[in-house]
Design brief:
Blueprint lengths: L2 E4 L3 H8 L5 E3 L17 H16 L4 E11 L2 E3 L5 H11 L3 E12 L2 E13 L4 H8 L21 E5 L2 H5 L3 H11 L1
Parallel strand pairs: 1-2, 1-3
Antiparallel strand pairs: 3-4, 3-5, 5-6, 6-7
């Protein structure tokens, strides 16, 4: 069985390698615009399905894994920061707060599909302006939802988590492994 990861994320690629399955990466070119009627809590799974469906259309014989992660604070999605100021704004908003990280995963193979969402609560310590500004000056936050990577220097910001750590990194690998067993 051959698998395709429909994601450009190097972190997801590293995590999927833990399953010891042969896979290639094929980045989806799907439109990632969210319908206005879609609840923010459903955005990650919706986008994962869109990405997987797009790639599966070209590779129906392979198992396609689509993934998307959203960071939610006060029912708003914090995407990838556009620039330094946007990153600083996001980190100030996350300081001394609990936020939700949702990762949607979709599986497509030979016309069948399934999807799920994993949710993790993350609490940050109160952050100083100096901590936020120093982190925003690194390359680390700019390709990550919410403007931080828990597996990197932002680990110093995390007071605690409730749920799957790997979900916050970008792929709930344990849950995915179990779903692949019943899907394939």
């Amino acid at each position: 069985m051959e698998y395709i990861l429909a994601s450009a994320s190097p972190r997801r690629k590293e995590l999927l390698a833990m399953l010891d399955i042969p896979f290639t990466v094929c980045v989806s070119g799907c439109d990632e615009t969210l319908p206005e009627s879609l609840a923010v809590r459903d955005a990650a799974e919706y986008l994962a399905v869109q990405k997987a469906a797009f790639v599966a259309n070209e590779h129906p014989e392979q198992v396609v894994i689509g993934v998307d992660t959203t960071v939610l604070l006060d029912d708003c999605i914090l995407g990838k920061p556009k620039d330094y100021a946007d990153c600083v704004r996001m980190l100030h908003a996350l300081s001394d707060r609990v936020h939700t990280v949702k990762t949607g995963v979709a599986l497509f193979h030979q016309g069948k599909s399934m999807s799920f969402t994993e949710e993790t609560q993350v609490q940050f310590y109160p952050l100083t302006d100096a901590e936020i500004e120093a982190y925003a000056k690194t390359d680390e936050p700019y390709d990550k939802a919410g403007g931080y990577g828990i597996q990197g220097k932002a680990a110093l910001f995390v007071r605690g988590i409730a749920g799957d750590y790997y979900n916050v990194v970008g792929l709930p690998i344990g849950k995915l492994a179990r779903h692949l067993r019943i899907f394939v």
